[in-house]
């Protein structure tokens, strides 16, 4: 088989605000790949099926000498994110052609994927019957794990308590809402469009509101106080949650999408209530919690997703050439449901 | 014995910024008290010896319908704080004349003190030989307990780790410095005057700096990263500590003196690092931890204070008529050492 074009989305430069396709990232078709003969050097050649666009990717668009929890993107090289692919050829025990793999993949139609990456090295998985494999970058993957691990580890939920979930329609928030309802809590959820608010209610939120048209402080004052706050957004929403926290509230600090695209900082008025109300804020990343919760997660959650007992939604972008736009959409929040980039059919 | 004047410091009005003696509080000598005949109604008549002026008292100067962890001051009534007194007469088992008591006392020369107050009801204590009783509102009292309980419960300190203590020269911070050194940590401390910086070093801080003349971010960048941050001040210092936190840092959120006298809020730039670095922030009050740690504290700490093994310092204001000024001094930070108001000699 002759070499074929290997489309790739390359990282170009650090954005000043929201990432812009064509500027922050550039789609490139200048390279070809010879699938039969490209040297594997102990690695695994993967055909990319779906890629994930996640909020944290903005954190990877930074000067390469600044450390953070995910490695930075390198100018001129493909961006990378979690994805699902199929093994084409393998030089590694445990990986064979046609296996599904999940883990960090380059935004390329084909890539040599790394099982040994320090975070999210690829691993083989068998999709749950009835569950489409794209779910494995969403509710059955990192976002779902984030919800499950964080909730289990930190929420210390008691029936009758009240939880507020910001970013409630996202792949993390929507699972948190459902875990909280299963534990017998009253759930307040916020989201940035009326369509997202509707989805929050569909998955069980008792109260859901559009934070762009409704005052968060007012809602929380009326519906709180909060025993638990699941924070996907940071910023003034965090401040409002602190102002309406119950004594001994638990705050699960999961993300801060409101802050990723700005260097302005945020005016916080209620931080002194952290000690006054004895709030504990748990910053966490799933990589730390995986050893404790991963096996349980895979045993329980994919089945519930396949049966519909736990709901999830996807917002699909077709074509790798559009991955830059998909990434931007997630930063701005115009996606409805887990943003998935479909790169190829099987 | 004829009735005598009972001087009192009355609460007058909510300050807009720092409390002002004569405006926020007013010293009043209009009442007399008949020590022999004043009805006790099951209570305890106490002669006030020393009173404490603490940062949290600013939190009590608020509208009475706003809840917080300490009850609000009531306009027209005496302010109150922790203090040491001597029992004059008692209508209560367990309290007899000449007993020393510690707990919430009115800012009055004599008061009917309450053993049943929900927080800090008075209790009898026997001063450790060699330890002046004023220490029982400082290093041997609430501030020392705050340090001890919080450190034991949340610091999870390991030898060789680095801790940053803001408000390092205060009665809480200076004990934290010493507990940290005993646990084998590197200690960075900040304070607001050169004299306070000197005291931080005297009690063992490896690095101490005046945050008004030295950039906190620069010091922490050079001397960090921080495994533990003991936060007495909040605000931009907290932001700087977050920016220089190690992964899995523990933040002990003890106070926020930088915020009590302002409604401006504070511009925070690094809150997203709470999750990125997996920081846990523990808001706490000693009342929650007392059942677990109080007995151990009283068994260990007063002896070490009496022997000089643990150092403390006091900044004394003489005369109840000056308690309003003492309270202001603590808010501004012009005191050096634990602010104690000496109301009477024994």
UniProtKB/TrEMBL annotation, chains A, B:
Residues 44-341 form the Enoyl reductase (ER) domain. Keywords: Oxidoreductase. SMART domains: PKS_ER. One of its GO terms (molecular function) is oxidoreductase activity, acting on the CH-CH group of donors, NAD or NADP as acceptor. It comes from the Eukaryota. CDD domains: PGDH. The keyword Oxidoreductase applies. The keyword Oxidoreductase applies. This is Enoyl reductase (ER) domain-containing protein. It comes from Lentinula raphanica.
């Amino acid at each position: 088989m002759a070499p074929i074009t290997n489309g790739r989305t390359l990282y170009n430069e650090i954005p000043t605000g929201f990432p812009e396709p064509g500027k922050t990232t550039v789609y490139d078709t200048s390279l070809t790949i010879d699938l039969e003969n490209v040297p594997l050097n102990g690695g695994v050649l993967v055909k990319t099926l779906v890629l994930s666009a996640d909020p944290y990717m903005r954190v990877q668009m930074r000067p390469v000498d600044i450390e953070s929890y995910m490695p930075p993107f390198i100018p001129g090289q493909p961006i990378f994110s979690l994805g699902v692919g199929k093994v084409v050829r393998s030089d590694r025990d445990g990986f064979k052609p046609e296996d599904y793999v999940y883990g960090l993949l380059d935004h390329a139609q084909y890539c040599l994927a790394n099982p040994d990456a320090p975070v999210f090295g690829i691993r083989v998985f068998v999709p749950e019957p009835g569950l489409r494999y794209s779910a494995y970058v969403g509710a059955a993957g990192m976002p779902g794990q984030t919800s499950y691990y964080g909730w289990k580890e930190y929420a210390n939920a008691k029936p009758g308590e009240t939880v507020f979930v910001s970013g409630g329609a996202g792949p993390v928030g929507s699972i948190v809402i459902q875990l909280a309802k299963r534990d017998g809590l009253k759930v307040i959820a916020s989201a940035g469009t009326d369509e997202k608010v509707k989805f929050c209610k569909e998955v069980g939120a008792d109260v859901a509101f559009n934070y762009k048209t409704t005052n968060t402080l007012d809602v929380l004052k009326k519906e709180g106080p909060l025993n638990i706050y699941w924070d996907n957004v940071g910023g003034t929403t965090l401040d409002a949650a602190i102002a309406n926290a119950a004594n001994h509230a638990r705050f699960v600090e999961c993300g801060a999408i409101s802050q990723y695209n700005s260097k302005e900082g945020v005016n916080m008025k209620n931080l002194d209530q952290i000690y006054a109300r004895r709030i504990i804020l748990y910053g966490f990343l799933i990589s730390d919690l995986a050893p404790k919760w991963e096996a349980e997660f895979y045993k329980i959650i994919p089945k519930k997703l396949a049966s519909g007992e736990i709901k999830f939604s996807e917002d699909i972008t077709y074509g790798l050439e559009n991955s830059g736009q998909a990434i931007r959409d997630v930063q701005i929040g115009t996606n409805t449901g887990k943003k998935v980039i479909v790169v190829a059919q099987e």
